[in-house]
C-alpha cells in the first residue's frame, strides 16, 4: 500500500495550491493537466473492465523533476477524466527516487502495473529496477517488488517497461543505453508475468538513449519510442527530443533507417498506446520536453506545469502511422462560432475551440493570437512561435505526401494540436500568447468552421 505520510504530503499540496493552478488563465479547459506540480509521461494506459485508466509521471512538490509518483485518472469516454488516489509513491528502497514510467496489463482479473524503480544517490550514481504492482479494484495498488535487475552490457539508463501479450506469451520492451552509449530497446519474455527471460536487443542505432518504447501491430508491427541525441537534419529534429516509430517486423527486425517522427510540433514526447475493446489503437502523449527549461513556462509561478495531448487513434496508411483525434472528442463541441465559406477570416476567437478548414485551395497563412503562425507553401507546412527561452523565433516544418485539403486544430488555453489531412501530419505544441490577445487571421481560400469547446476547467 502507498506510504500514507508521503501520500498525505502530496494531497496537502493539491489542497493548498490546486485552486491557484486551476485559476491560471493558461490552465487547460479540456486537456489533462496536474492539479499541482509537474506532469510528464503518460503511464499505464489501459481499458480495464470497461473503464479507461491513465496514469502519469507526477511530481507533486514542485514544478521540476525528481522522485515521481504515478497520478491516476479514469474515464468512461476518453473525454471526462476523474482524479483517483495516486497509485504509486516513491516509498520503497527500490524506487525511492522515483516510480518511473511503465505500463499496465490485465491478468486473472487483476490490474498489473510494470514500472521502473529509480534509485539515485547524491553523487548521481544510479540504480534501476523493473518492478510490478497489482490491484484488484483498480483504485488501490500494492507493490509486488523487483522483477528485473540491470543485465550486463547496459548503463543504468534502463527503464520504461511496456508489457503486452502475444502468441500466448508476455513480452516486455525496455528503453536502454548500451555501455558504448548507444540508444536501444531490449526485449524480455515471460510465461507468467513473474519470471522474465532476457531475449536481447530488439532495435538499436541512432542517439544515446531510447526512452519509453512501445510495441503494437497495425497492418504491420510498429515500434514506437523516444530517442535522445538525434542531430538536426534539414527540416527534421529541430526540437530538443523527438518521438517516432519504425514500421518493421517483430521477427525480422526494425531497421533504424526507417525511423519517422510521429509528431512535428514543439512539445510531443513519451507517448504511450493501448488497444481498447473496439479494437482501436489509442495514444496519449506528453506535451512537454524533458531536461530543463521549466522556468520558461509562465504556469510555473502558479504551481503547475505541462499537460497531455488529446487521446488519438492510430492507423497505418501505407508506410506511415497517422493519428486522428478520437471521435468521442466531438462531445466537447458546444456552439458554432464561425461558419465561413468565402475564404479568409479575421476576428477574435476564444482559446477553447476547434478550428476546421476544409476545401483548402491555395497556400495559406494562419496567425493565432499574435503568437503562433502556420503557413503552407507548396507541400511544406511550417509552424513558428516565439522561442520558449526568449531568444527570437523558433520553427518546425514537415512535408505533406498529398496536397493539403484539410486542417483541424484543437486550441486550448495554452496548447495547439494541428491535424493535417486527417492525421497524415500532426503538430502538437504549447503556446503562451498574451492572455488578453484573441485576434486570429486566416488567409487563403477555404471553408472555415470554429466550434466552441466545453469551457469548464480541470480534469473532473
Ligand atoms: C521520459 C522519462 C522516462 C522516465 C521518466 C521519469 O520523459 O525520462 O524515461 O521513466 O521520464 O519521470
Short description:
Pfam families: Glyco_hydro_32C, Glyco_hydro_32N. The protein has 460 residues and is mainly beta.
The description of the largest β-sheet is: 6 strands, antiparallel
Q: Give the overall pLDDT as a whole number.
A: 95
What is the tally of beta strands?
A: 34
- What is the count of helical runs? 1
Q: Name the strands of the widest sheet in spatial order.
A: 23-34-25-30-31-32
User: Radius of gyration, Cα only, in angstroms?
Assistant: 21 Å
User: How many separate domains?
Assistant: 2
CATH class of the largest domain: Mainly Beta
| Helicity, as a percent range | under 10%
Structural class given helices, strands, pairing?
Answer: mainly beta
Q: Classify the fold: give the CATH topology of the largest domain.
A: Tachylectin-2, Chain A
CATH superfamily of the largest domain: Glycosyl hydrolase domain, family 43
Known CATH architecture of the largest domain: 5 Propeller
Task: Give the overall shape.
Answer: globular
In this entry the ligands are:
beta-D-fructofuranose
Segments where pLDDT lies below 50 for 5+ residues?
none
Strand content: over 45%
Amino-to-carboxy terminus distance: 25 Å
Any overview of this molecule?
The protein has 460 residues and is mostly beta strands. The protein has 2 domains: 4-324, Glycosyl hydrolase domain, family 43 (Tachylectin-2, Chain A, 5 Propeller); 327-453, Exo-inulinase, domain 1 (Jelly Rolls), CATH 2.60.120. It contains 1 helix and 34 strands. It has one helix at residues 4-22; strands spanning 37-48, 51-59, 69-75, 82-88, 99-107, 110-120, 126-135, 142-148, 154-166, 169-178, 183-190, 197-205, 209-217, 221-228, 244-248, 260-261, 269-275, 281-287, 304-305, 307-308, 312-317, 320-325, 333-340, 345-348, 353-358, 365-368, 372-377, 380-386, 393-399, 407-412, 415-420, 425-430, 439-443, 447-453. The strands form 7 sheets. A 6-stranded antiparallel sheet has the order 23-34-25-30-31-32, with no helix packed on it. It has a 6-stranded antiparallel sheet with strand order 24-33-26-27-28-29, with no helix packed on it. Strand 1 (37-48) and strand 2 (51-59) form a beta hairpin. The protein is globular, with a radius of gyration of 21 Å. The two termini are 25 Å apart. The mean pLDDT is 95. The chain binds beta-D-fructofuranose. Beta-D-fructofuranose (FRU) binds at residues 40-41, 57, 68, 100-101, 116, 159-160, 211-212, 269-270, 290. Residues 31-325 form the Glycosyl hydrolase family 32 N-terminal domain. Its EC number is 3.2.1.26.
